[in-house]
């Protein structure tokens, strides 16, 4: 199941504290079409059990960045990481950006964020996920973050040129899509100079003299297309 930000637009309210068991989800895009989504209460379904069993990795993080709950699908990827700082399962190169995205929701400056991160899997492998997350609210106050992730099981074979680091490969993918230095910097939450450094290093690693040549060489030697 492919779950991206376009599909994960759930505003989550916690009706008890993070140790409680009742989560109420409201989906604004359907309000007015299906009526008030408090109808979830009328249905009386066990939303928590559904979230636990669904094959979409899901999690709850408290305001201090501690993972309080993850479902079975998430455990299959990163193991049982409850009680750990969320940043501990994010790859080193993505930790600063992950903290920035988390802070946006805790501070109330973002209603929803969609971003790609590299996580450290339960076996120590690197796992690329697209994460969509929203603030958890109680009484109008942000008390945590709820998120869901899209994960391709077959991504273990995801194209990654053997001469490049994961970050350089990520930059190369963006060059392939025609993104500029500024666009790559904005997308990865990096400075333009850092992006330029990544480009210089990947050009050297591939023996290329230009960005276009780097893409061509990578495609010829090792398929890096999505």
Would you kindly provide a brief summary of this structure?
The chain is of the alpha+beta class.
Short key terms for the protein model shown above:
alpha+beta; 2 domains; 21% strand; disordered N terminus; elongated; 34% helix; Beta-Lactamase; seven-stranded mixed beta sheet; 226 residues; Arc Repressor Mutant, subunit A; 7 strands
Strand and helix layout:
Layout: E1 11-14, E2 23-26, H1 39-43, H2 47-53, E3 58-61, E4 67-70, H3 72-78, H4 95-106, E5 113-120, E6 126-138, E7 141-150, H5 166-176, H6 181-188, H7 192-206, H8 211-221
Parallel strand pairs: 1-6
Antiparallel strand pairs: 1-2, 3-4, 3-7, 5-6, 6-7
Characterization of the model:
This protein has 2 domains: 11-156, PAS domain (Beta-Lactamase), CATH 3.30.450.20; 159-221, Arc Repressor Mutant, subunit A. 34% of the residues lie in helices and 21% in strands. It has helices at 39-43, 47-53, 72-78, 95-106, 166-176, 181-188, 192-206, 211-221; strands at 11-14, 23-26, 58-61, 67-70, 113-120, 126-138, 141-150. Strands 1, 2, 3, 4, 5, 6 and 7 form a 7-stranded mixed β-sheet that branches. Helix 5 (166-176) crosses helix 7, helix 6 (181-188) crosses helix 7 and helix 7 crosses helix 8. Mean pLDDT is 78; it is low at 1-37.
